[in-house]
Specification:
single chain, mainly beta, 6-stranded mixed β-sheet, 9 helices, globular
């Protein structure tokens, strides 16, 4: 995920788990709960991280086609006994290294044309800005594969042709323009002076839907002239849907009735639905808006200031988009100015930040379909929305993380029960299941249990009498979901990012990427976020806190995904293999599988858990990586009491629950080029192709070196002295077979 502005804005002192029932954690009763009750729950629930994809369209005409019959649900797979490749060594080379016996094909790079009339990308910053709405965007991130049969219709089994929906989270400005970004002035007076540079940036954010095919030679490529190809970006007209739509909070000059907004951006993690649509998550959206507090604060109410503070809406705007002058008649640039400048909300963009921070639904099979922001799922720094297995007669459930340190884990439960007849329902099914439901936030108790707390106006302290923020109605609660979660007493986590549901056990896994000493203090360690330690970088630089992160998992009570209680443990702790085993390397990692900052997460249909890293703590030893794992289930390990030590030498003991040591059931599969993040992962139905994104290689190149190609820290994937480019790769096993096995 982008490192630009993972802003920490949670000022609460919600209780930590050790203050509740820590003493119970190591008890025999706790052990019995996990080993007994959870085992029964796991056997009774057939979870799934995969769903049959349905929709309409063809390569010649993407208009809706006849619905495809829904096949019977596949039987629950059996997890393989072992992984089928040798571990890849750690590496700091500017190269993509993949396990022996596998081939990686670079398939879809920044700037690649997505229409017949678009020229090949020059990759020198001189391509015309107006062409970027038909080119691949930058910073490839979350994605999903939607299969197409030979007839161009949705197919549950097609594995040689499909549509990839790919997020483009952010940009590396130095490589996007001929000479880097052009500005004048400093501080609050700094402005952008080249409108075409900004237009280019508008387009390279957002989402690509692109057709991909596997050729007769086995190599994958994108189809430049496919009628399915589509770019959704910051200028795409988008409908606001659900409880917060058409309310006064959403009124802008662009949409006086609050029903629409313009575009989507900072699209990070992803999701998909049982009805064959794509979900993209708006993560670090707040920093794009310009709001100079000295000018705007005196015009705002106390409530507004609390909301702005909690979400981080302040400053010049990270890309200075609002500063371009003169503005256009339709406010392409001014719409990023969130200050009060008009007589009413319908005269300016004071409410524009309220129209961002949502889960956004896209129908990949219909290139002309409307894009919708689903407000029932709450507004925060969304990392993604990952579905539980859809079961007839039961609610549709999605799990979500708010990607910032000290933020929360959420769950959405639809009001309507799943009807398999909606499997090819497209956006209409989204209206049915995603516009009406309950939003919950998680509290992790120290005894290994947890609760889902509903974020509902009038529940607990989520009301008008709340002294921190006086909620007015349910739309206010959803727009200010972070503040509602604060009021509910949710557990602050070490940066919740990707989630995934294990198709074997139904357990939900979520990466907690990392934290630092300021946010995971010694005093604030708890059972779910139990470590505060020093990870020494390059032998000299201290890194206190939880710089290596961990992966938490939970199993809903009775295997019911709509349950209000669950049991949890920590599947995996990131650490250097050489770290202290008693207090840091709690998962017993070795040179073949040690990792830091787990981020992306995906379960294959066969039950392989793929783990991706986004790391700055361990890059003195290795670039970011992709690992494969064969996990057990919640409660398969033991309780451990660890001793944390801070920079002053003070100590604190914390008892937590650690999953079984992974051993050879976890190993490194791929290492990326310099400065990259490994993120975004999808697979074909047959499991024989894995798609992975390589984001922002060469990101640490100083902007001042843009004219000196020899100084670029990376030249991947084109090599030579080329500017680096984010790209999607296709991974296949030489001779065929399921990837990883």
């Amino acid at each position: 995920m982008s490192h630009h502005d993972d802003l920490v804005t949670n000022p609460t002192s919600n209780p930590h788990l050790n203050d509740l029932v820590e003493a119970r954690l190591a008890s025999a009763g706790r052990r019995g709960l996990l080993r007994g009750g959870l085992g029964l729950s796991a056997m009774g629930f057939l979870g799934g991280a995969t769903g049959l994809l349905a929709g309409c369209g063809s390569s010649d005409d993407p208009a809706p086609a006849a619905a495809t019959p829904t096949p019977a649900a596949p039987a629950t797979p059996t997890r393989p006994a072992s992984l089928g490749f040798s571990a890849v060594p750690k590496s700091t080379a500017d190269a993509l290294t993949v396990a022996t016996g596998y081939t990686a094909t670079v398939m879809f790079r920044l700037g690649d044309p997505m229409a017949a009339n678009v020229a090949a990308y020059r990759n020198d910053g001189t391509d015309a800005a107006a062409t970027y709405d038909r080119r691949a965007g930058d910073h490839h991130d979350g994605m999903h594969f939607f299969p197409l049969g030979a007839d161009g219709r949705p197919s549950a089994t097609a594995s040689d042709r499909g549509l990839l929906a790919i997020n483009h989270e952010a940009i590396t400005p130095a490589f996007l323009h001929a000479n880097g970004v052009t500005t004048t002035g400093t501080g609050a007076s700094q402005v952008r002076t080249v409108a075409d540079e900004v237009l280019k940036e508008f387009y390279v954010h957002g989402v690509s839907v692109v057709e991909v095919r596997r050729g007769a030679n086995g190599a994958w490529s994108h189809v430049q002239d496919s009628s399915f190809n589509r770019r959704i970006h910051t200028l795409t007209d988008t409908t606001l849907s659900g409880p917060a739509a058409r309310t006064s909070y959403m009124v802008t000059k662009y949409s006086p009735d609050g029903s629409r907004t313009r575009g989507t951006l900072n699209n990070c993690g992803h999701g998909y639905t049982p009805w064959g649509t794509y979900l993209t998550a708006e993560e670090n959206w707040a920093g794009y808006f310009r709001r100079i507090t000295a000018v705007d604060n005196p015009k705002r109410s106390a409530k507004e200031l609390t909301s702005f503070s909690r979400y981080g809406v302040a400053g010049n705007g990270r890309e200075l988009w609002a500063t371009v002058t003169p503005d256009t008649a339709d406010n392409l640039y001014g719409r990023w100015n969130a200050e009060i400048v008009g007589a009413s909300a319908a005269d300016d963009y004071r409410n524009a930040p309220n129209t961002y921070g949502w889960i956004v639904e896209i129908d990949p099979y219909t290139a002309t379909s409307t894009v919708k922001k689903r407000t029932a799922l709450g507004r925060f720094a969304h990392e993604g929305a990952w579905p539980a297995k859809a079961e007839a007669g039961k609610p549709v459930v999605f799990y979500m993380g708010c990607d910032s340190r000290n933020e929360y884990i959420y769950k959405y439960v639809s009001t309507r029960n799943w009807d398999p007849a909606d499997a090819s329902g497209g956006m209409a099914a989204g209206d049915k299941y995603l516009d009406d439901g309950k939003l919950y936030v998680a509290r992790f108790n120290a005894d290994g249990t947890g609760q889902w707390i509903e974020l509902r106006f009038g529940t607990g302290t989520i009301n008008a009498a709340n002294t921190t923020y006086a909620f007015a109605d349910q739309a206010d609660v959803l727009i200010n979901a972070r503040l509602a979660a604060d009021a509910a007493g949710a557990t602050r986590m070490d940066r919740p990012e990707w989630g995934a549901v294990d198709p074997i056990t139904g357990a939900v896994y979520m990466t907690l990427t990392n934290s630092n000493a300021a946010n995971r203090t010694l005093a604030s360690t708890d059972a779910a976020n139990p470590r505060h330690y020093n990870d020494v970088r390059a032998g000299t630089t201290n890194q206190f806190g939880n710089p290596n992160g961990h992966i938490i998992r939970w199993l809903e009570t009775g295997g019911d995904t709509s349950a209000l209680t669950f049991a949890w443990d920590i599947y995996l702790f990131g650490a250097r293999a050489t770290a202290n085993a008693a207090n840091v390397n709690l998962s017993g990692l070795t040179a073949d599988n040690d990792l830091s900052s787990p981020d992306g997460l995906w379960f294959s249909r066969q039950g392989v858990c793929w783990i991706q890293t986004d790391d700055g703590a361990y890059t003195d030893v290795t670039n970011c990586m992709l690992l494969a794992a064969l996990p057990g289930t919640v409660g398969d390990g033991e309780s451990k009491t660890i001793t944390n030590t801070d920079s002053t030498g003070a100590t604190k003991q914390v008892t937590t629950r650690v999953g079984a040591v992974p051993g050879t059931r976890l190993r490194r599969f791929l290492v990326g080029p310099k400065d990259c993040e490994i993120t975004g992962i999808a697979e074909t139905p047959d499991g024989q192709t894995l798609f992975v994104n390589i984001q922002h290689p060469g990101e640490d190149t100083p902007a001042a070196q843009i004219g000196n190609p020899a100084a670029y820290t990376s030249h991947w994937p084109d090599g030579g002295l080329a500017r680096p480019r984010s790209a999607t790769i296709a991974l296949t096993k030489n001779g065929g077979g399921v990837v990883g096995l």
